[in-house]
Structures are given as structure tokens and as C-alpha cells.
What does this fold into?
Amino acid sequence: MENPLLLFPQLNISASKDKAYYKQPVMKEEPHKAGKAGAKQKRNRLSLLLQKPEFHEGDHLGKPGNLPKAASVSPEEAVKWGESFDKLLSEKAGLDAFTKFLKTEFSEENIEFWIACEDYKKSKSAHELLPKAKTIFETFIQKDAPKEVNLDFHTKEVTSQSMGQPGRSTFEAAQSTVYRLMEQDSYPRFLRSAPYLGMLQGRAPPRAPLRRRSRSFTVSDFKGARPSPALW
It folds into this structure.
């Protein structure tokens, strides 16, 4: 019997076309759909990025109405801060002002550690002490901690040993050391700083000067960098 495909060659062509018809959507349509889905996901991510506040970091420049108002501190209140370091830290406005000053000196980890210790001592139960103690130790005290404070070897060793069974006095020695450091070193400079002297005279603290960033750099390129004198 003769092969029907030889007698009717159009059957072979039709079969080839059908075969190609069913394979073609698998090869071409699926990647097309995947590409459209990928493009849609990129657009969604871009939309979310544009909604983030940090993306509009420079939008407020030149618009005084959008700038946060400086806290109002009376000269009488500022005078009390100069009487003792304790009085400065005992008032929220004083604590905030001192914290902002330490940030300009890149030493805010000292006051953050002191505040964490104050909160730690106010823990209502022994059950709260262990997780708080671990967080404070890993953040401020252990070697290469992200906000490691400057402690002598003996104080650091005593604090490390007490981490086995932390109590309310676990960070007492370390907190006292950091307190004395701030009182003897940072506090006198704060009292001589322009923002504090301005408060004594009833003026709002001056804002830090704004710097223009080159479009060829990103925000991360400028973190911790000082501009070259040649650029001023």
C-alpha cells in the first residue's frame, strides 16, 4: 500500500503547520508575558520608591514653610542648664539640645548609651532585664559593637562578667564612666557652643548650613566625607 503522504503531500504540509501552530505559543507568548510581568513589577517598585520621604530629601530646600520649627527655650531655662550637667539631662529640652550637639561631634553614642541605661534601670521585672541587657551589651559595649562607647579594660571586663546574670546594677560602672566623660569633656564644649549661647540670648539655635550635592554622586558617597578645601 502506497504511503498516503506521498499521494497527498498537502497532508504533510498541514500536519507540519499544525505542529508548528501548537508549539509556537509556548516559545514566544510565555516570555512575552514574563516580560510584561517584570516590567509591571519594576513600575510598582518605582512607584513605592517615589512615595518614600527620603526620596524627596531635597524637596524642602528653599521652602522655609516646610522646615521644622526650632524648639522654644527661654534664656532662664538655658541658664539652668549651665548650672550643672545633671540639670541639663533632667529636662527633655536640655537632653535634646545636648544630643544634637553630640551628633555634630559624632559622639552621640555616649548619650544614647546613658539613656539606654536609665531605661534599663526602670525595668519593672527581672524578666525584662535579660533581653534589654543583651541589646545594650551588643550595641554599646562588646568589641566592634555598632555604637561602641569608650570604656577602660577593667570596666568592660566587669560588665561582661555580669552578663551571665544581669541585674539592675549591671551597667552601673559603665554608665558612670560614660557620664563622667561627657561631663568633663563634651559638656563644657556644649556650654561654649553657638547654639547654647544663642539660647542664652533668646535666639533660636542656628540651622546647619545646607550643602549642594553634585548630581554625579549619591547620598552614600557623602556620608562621613569632608569637602576638599579646594571646593570651597
About this structure: The CA atoms of residues 74 and 202 lie 6 Å apart. Confidence is low (pLDDT under 50) at residues 13-29, 49-70, 208-232. The first helix runs from residue 4 to 7.
